[in-house]
Amino acid sequence: MTTDAAIIATQAPCENCPIRYRAVCAHCESEELGELEDMKFYRRYEAGQNVVWAADRMDFVASVVSGMAGLTQQLEDGRTQMVGLLLPSDFLGRPGRDVAAYTVTATSDLLLCCFRRKPFEKLLRERPRVAGRLLEMTLDELDAARDWLLLLGRKSAREKIASLLVILARREAALLRRRPEGRIVVSLPLTREAMADYLGLTLETVSRQMSTLKRAGVIELDGKRRVIVPSFGALVIESGDDSDGGPLS
Amino acid sequence: MTTDAAIIATQAPCENCPIRYRAVCAHCESEELGELEDMKFYRRYEAGQNVVWAADRMDFVASVVSGMAGLTQQLEDGRTQMVGLLLPSDFLGRPGRDVAAYTVTATSDLLLCCFRRKPFEKLLRERPRVAGRLLEMTLDELDAARDWLLLLGRKSAREKIASLLVILARREAALLRRRPEGRIVVSLPLTREAMADYLGLTLETVSRQMSTLKRAGVIELDGKRRVIVPSFGALVIESGDDSDGGPLS
DNA sequence: ACAGGACATTGACCCAAATCAAGATGACTA
DNA sequence: TAGTCATCTTGATTTGGGTCAATGTCCTGT
Fold first, then answer.
1. Which residue from B167, B133, B162, B165 is spatially nearest to B147, judged by alpha carbons?
2. How wide is the angle at C-alpha A108 spanned by C-alphas A103 and A113, nearest 5°?
């Protein structure tokens, strides 16, 4: 929400940088943070590839430039639940912890802008505005996790699917500083299985409910990874929570 | 985990203060924060009483001194999901936001140590260590929310109940700087309905699974609000996740 | 000690989503 | 062009937990 230069990721497009969105990106901030320029590096992952495994050492933090990744947690017997969804401008990594708590998997081709952890933590200690921005982002993530709790605990399969589409549509629109309404197209860089892991369902149920929503005219499918929503309002109603999300938060 | 004086809540008992645990408590920090002394005040709530309603104005932040409270979210049709569980030493309120996002209800008698929001935000801006501690706490809360996602998305009713008991036992032990093992007693300051809202179940299912666990010898009931666990290890196995939680995190 | 009310347990039945099992689609390779 | 493999859809069946409906239990106040 701050309009002046934020050092941690914001959703503002960045003019002077190969990265499309302002992120943890020394380049964007080179005037004040030139000394960090050489700490920045990029990593590219293909769909399905792991960024880190839970309990692996993780010596960097990162910001998503493009693509999508999921944080995933597992029970011994293999039951899997996604516990975080990383979209462009999202932050990855926990300062102060060098061991990954979750497995991070690219669900589509993924580009990360990375920083070594140690200098990042130093930055955090020395720059109150950086720390403040990270706190803000963490609180937003906590709010998102709480909406997700409501989704997992109390929504029907149909509502869950609709909710996921609403979330993706809102996130996509937010990057373009727009508000989704009317007829929109949502790209779905997730397999049915990844959707199931996000929603606490099986992939069969996801597939069935997608078909149901299609038959009900709420969505149209353009291939498997692209959804056309004739009326965003109707989709929001299907999602159960009628809160309109506020002004482009 | 820092052993030196932390300004935001820690789990360390406080020697020179009526509050049992170090919390957002000017008293504990009066040597360096004397000017905030008059900003501190206490509030007491009875079981069932609301601290704030979602969308109400909230002009304070607080730390739980004793008792338990739940953050709760609702769908239009009344379906309710608890999205936060506040135990002693937990922090309540979002700096930078003056409107409550969730309804906060005392599930047992509750004592809060409160601070007016404005001076607290000033403190946050001026004291990097306070901000750092709050970031730390928020990240811990996010981790807890992610375990909760796994619970809601993938665990059976029986595992959910066992998991809740494990969480309560661990939290209670952590305040006493112990690690739960062997035969322990867990106090349960929640109605069956509150447990259901936490776990994404109905109160009938909660009741049934409590009975099942009792019949299986995993727990014994001492009244309705007190559970005896003959073997904590056995309970952890019932909870599904075998991770032993690490050293008193 | 008793009555009332909130909270909890138990039972019978039902349904949404899981499970098991074929097929269909579509992208890539030989 | 055909073949292979991953992904997705659809169908048949099962089941865990929800719903509805009685009881039971334990505080609290009189």
1. B167
2. 70
Check B152 against A155: CB less than 8 A apart.
Answer: no
Q: Contacts of residue B143 in chain A, CB cutoff 8 Å?
A: 101
- Sequence-distant (6+) residues with CB within 8 A of A79 are B154, B155
Domains of chain A: residue spans and CATH = 27-148 (2.60.120.10), 156-238 (1.10.10.10)
pTM of the model: 0.89
Largest CA distance in chain A: 57
- For the ranges A5-19, A231-245, B6-20, the maximum mean pLDDT occurs at A231-245
| B35 SS3 class | helix
List, for residues B10-48, the tens digit of each pLDDT value.
444 444 333 344 444 444 443 334 445 556 788 899 999
Tokens of A183: 């007829």
Say what the ipTM of the complex is.
0.90
Which residues in chain A are contacts of B145 at CB distance < 8 A? 142, 145-146, 149
Which residues in chain A, range 195-214, keep a C-beta under 7 Å from any nucleic strand D atom? 203-204, 206-208, 210-211
